[in-house]
């Protein structure tokens, strides 16, 4: 069980936004100044990694949640709403930086994905955010590969393998039912593709 717990911690949902940004800047030819790249990476790290940790610490300190794992649906509702707004604002901010539209729309996709997760709370479904996050990165990698005609087959193979490991870990730890893992994966990929379709239509 230690291995599965370690996988769940190392590949926590909050790490995937910064991984997506790193992939974007590494895979593409440099089209913005390095200083701007560093600013964007720091902004994303603060918004999607540091802020959620501080939020959970605040909620735990005021006994609004029982555990950092957010095991119940009720405990997940406010943090999910908070992150929907945060991802939306982050996407809006990135749109202000020239040549980062595709990355910005990936964060709008994250907001859309979490909105879907929030709606599913009302049918008593606790979607796996771990599989949603890795699937979102897979979807975004596909989008980058298609948009810029890049061969990202190897990274995609690694991500699919990692998705299988993460999904297995969540099931072995009994953190989710199989349908919650599958739904998380479907939402993660599909929202990235929907967001890209909107981006493509808008930029025609």
What does this structure look like?
This protein has 204 residues and is mainly α. The chain is globular and about 45 Å long. The longest helix is centred in the first third of the chain and has 28 residues, at 34-61. Helix 2 runs parallel beside helix 6. The chain contains eight helices and no strands. It has helices at 2-10, 16-27, 34-61, 73-95, 101-121, 129-148, 153-172, 178-202. The mean pLDDT is 93. 32% of the residues are buried.
Identify the notable features of this structure and list them briefly.
204 residues; mainly alpha; 0% strand; globular
Write the layout of secondary structure elements.
Layout: H1 2-10, H2 16-27, H3 34-61, H4 73-95, H5 101-121, H6 129-148, H7 153-172, H8 178-202
Helix pairs in contact: 1-7, 2-3, 2-6, 3-4, 4-5, 5-6, 5-8, 6-7, 6-8
N/C terminus separation = 50 Å
State the major sheet: none
Low-confidence stretches: none
Number of helices: 8
Helix content: over 70%
* Helix-strand category: mainly alpha
Q: What is the overall pLDDT average?
A: 93
Helices and strands, in N-to-C order? HHHHHHHH
- Structural Rg: 17 Å
DSSP summary, beta strand count: 0
Amount of beta strand: under 5%
Gross geometry? globular
């Amino acid at each position: 069980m230690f291995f599965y717990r370690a996988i769940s911690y190392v590949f926590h949902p909050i790490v995937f936004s910064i991984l997506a940004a790193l992939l974007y800047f590494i895979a593409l030819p440099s089209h913005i100044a390095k200083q701007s790249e560093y600013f964007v990476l720091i902004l994303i790290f603060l918004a999607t990694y540091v802020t959620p940790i501080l939020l959970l610490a605040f909620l735990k300190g005021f006994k609004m949640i029982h555990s950092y794992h957010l095991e119940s649906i009720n405990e997940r509702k406010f943090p999910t709403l908070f992150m929907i707004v945060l991802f939306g604002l982050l996407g809006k901010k990135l749109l202000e930086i020239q040549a980062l539209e595709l990355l910005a729309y990936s964060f709008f996709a994250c907001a859309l994905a979490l909105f879907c997760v929030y709606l599913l709370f009302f049918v008593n479904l606790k979607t796996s955010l771990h599989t949603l996050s890795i699937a979102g990165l897979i979807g975004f990698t596909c989008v980058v590969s298609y948009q810029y005609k890049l061969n990202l087959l190897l990274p995609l193979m690694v991500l699919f393998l990692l998705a299988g490991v993460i999904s297995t870990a969540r099931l072995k730890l009994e953190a989710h039912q199989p349908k919650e893992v599958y739904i998380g994966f479907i939402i993660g990929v599909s929202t990235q593709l929907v967001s890209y379709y909107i981006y493509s239509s808008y930029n025609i």
